[in-house]
Write the structure tokens for this entry.
Amino acid sequence: MVYAIVRAGGRQEKVEVGTVLTVDRQKAGEDGSVTFAPVLLVDGETVTHAADDLAKVTVTGELLGHTRGKKIVIQKFKNKTGYKKRQGHRQELSRVRITAIG
């Protein structure tokens, strides 16, 4: 069983071939592929975590599409002053299917 831990959008995700990830908005290459930087690679009994060895490993995926996350509401309130502020945010996301680890 081969899997990798990759750095994706400020977080670390465990991925295998065929895994579908939802990560922060990514730009794809001309062929629609996205590459991730591996942090750890597990290949059966072998665990690779040295930076020199991981520089040779690439984790690639295909971009499935862009979405937006659920809306969060930021509210600020100060008592007895009449200060109220309300703001919303929706994160821009991308869905990526992992195609190759190697």
